[in-house]
Design goal:
Blueprint: E1 2-6, H1 9-17, H2 23-29, E2 42-49, H3 51-54, H4 63-76, E3 77-78, H5 88-95, H6 100-106, H7 118-122, H8 124-148, H9 153-160, H10 164-176, H11 181-188, H12 192-198, H13 202-205, H14 208-220, H15 228-241, H16 252-276
Antiparallel strand pairs: 1-2, 2-3
Pfam families: DUF6339
InterPro entries: DUF6339
Region (Disordered): 118-137
């Protein structure tokens, strides 16, 4: 393991400002030639990272891969704290070095079409169309880099950044059940919609006791998430029935009583909606 590195504020600002100019680096050559320059490799003495383990990250898409990758990232750090895990300079440095190849493969940038030569390429309409395509692809590539290589704000580090979102998945799962982190991750990451509704809502992700109860219901009554509509109705019912309920003070049994009533409400509401349609 090596000391965790981060970039300076000035380098972070420089990278953000120069995304368009650096697209070729994101495509291929990378930033290795910058690693020894001032401000690019500042060290945190309290945190270590296993760069070799990060090479195990799988760029494939899917729930099982997300679970595995979240565990890999979690196991790659020693000493990482939630406070440090909000620091954009840490995660930005990682996706420009140790995590660059994973980010490239997970969210590949598109190749800009080359200008055509000859008579066909010289036609005004054809040239304008090609220029428009290049501009659109370039815009998409810039947006891709800005979203997944940087960690702007809470949604940036928790939901979008290539590496940090995986760390936060595992951190939230461990708070719910440190003895079965992988099992909790399987429920949290079952679908993108479930993650969006559970992890991306501070009302839930910041309340381990409540989230623990939701996971229990998902395991004992999988029909609560058999459709997106059902799960969303379940959370609406929880927002209504659970308002003012201090789940942290309830036994598992009492908490489950409230949550199962929310499940029943969800099924009733879905049935009513289907009949009305």
């Amino acid at each position: 393991m090596a000391k965790l590195k981060y970039v300076s504020e000035s380098i972070l600002a420089e990278l953000k400002a120069n995304v368009p100019a650096n697209l070729e680096r994101y495509h291929g050559e990378g930033f290795d030639d910058c690693s020894n320059l001032n401000g690019w490799s500042m060290e945190l003495s309290s945190v270590e990272v296993d760069a070799e383990k990060l090479k195990e990250l799988d760029p494939a898409v899917g729930s099982a891969v997300e679970v595995s990758n979240s565990l890999i990232v979690s196991d790659s750090f020693q000493g990482m704290t939630p406070a440090l895990a909000t620091e954009e300079r840490v995660w930005t440095r990682m996706t420009h070095f140790e995590g660059l190849e994973y980010a490239r493969q997970r969210w590949p940038l598109k190749d800009e079409p080359k200008e055509k030569s000859g008579l066909f390429g010289s036609l005004t309409g054809s040239k304008e169309k090609a220029a428009g395509q290049r501009k659109q692809i370039r815009h998409e590539n810039i947006r891709q880099v800005e979203t997944h290589y940087f960690a702007r704000g809470r949604t940036g580090y928790r939901d979008d950044h290539a590496i940090s979102r995986l760390w936060w998945n595992a951190f939230i799962a461990e708070r719910v059940d440190s003895q079965d982190k992988e099992g909790v991750l399987r429920e949290l990451l079952r679908t993108a919609d479930i993650r969006s509704n559970l992890v991306e809502r501070p009302m839930l992700s910041n309340r381990p006791s409540l989230l623990r109860g939701i996971i229990r219901v998902m395991r004992s009554h999988p029909d609560v998430y058999n459709t997106e509509a059902t799960f969303r109705e379940f959370l609406k019912a929880l927002n209504f029935r659970g308002s003012g309920v201090l789940f942290e003070a309830l036994s598992d049994g009492k908490a489950d009583e409230v949550l199962l009533r929310c499940r029943d409400d969800a099924h009733d509401n879905v049935k009513k909606s289907n009949k009305a349609a």
